[in-house]
């Protein structure tokens, strides 16, 4: 359910920004996936400190890789979440590089 909720929110925000507001598709995609990734880190941190259900790590990684990399970085910093697990740092670095290269490729004309 966390994955479906995050995916739904990311897609709705992307479509609203792109089709209604008129933001470029690339920027709309990245901005649309930022809040779900940030929220997922916050929810998972809260659940971790209160002994509740957890968001699977693969979902947190997936949200960063699909375009929520800014939200994932922000969530990691603001909530001080997943800072002791090196794999999270590496996934966020990889996602950052991926999106910088992809954005450069798209913006600079492929």
Topology readout:
Elements: H1 2-21, H2 25-50, H3 57-78, H4 86-107
Helix pairs in contact: 1-2, 2-3, 3-4
Total count of strands: 0
Largest sheet: none
Helix content: over 70%
Distance linking N and C termini: 36 Å
What form results from the Cα inertia axes? globular
Radius of gyration: 14 Å
Q: Provide the low-confidence segments as ranges.
A: none
Helix and strand pattern: HHHH
Helix/strand-derived category reads mainly alpha
Mean pLDDT: 92
What is the strand content? under 5%
Instruction: List the total number of helices.
Output: 4
Summarize the model shown:
By secondary structure, the chain is mainly alpha-helical. The protein contains 4 helices and no strands.
Could you walk me through the main structural features you see in this protein, from its secondary elements to its overall organization?
The protein has 110 residues and is an all-alpha fold. 82% of the residues lie in helices and 0% in strands. The longest helix is centred in the middle third of the chain and has 26 residues. The protein starts with a helix and ends with a helix.
Question: Top keywords for this entry?
Answer:
mainly alpha; 0% strand; globular
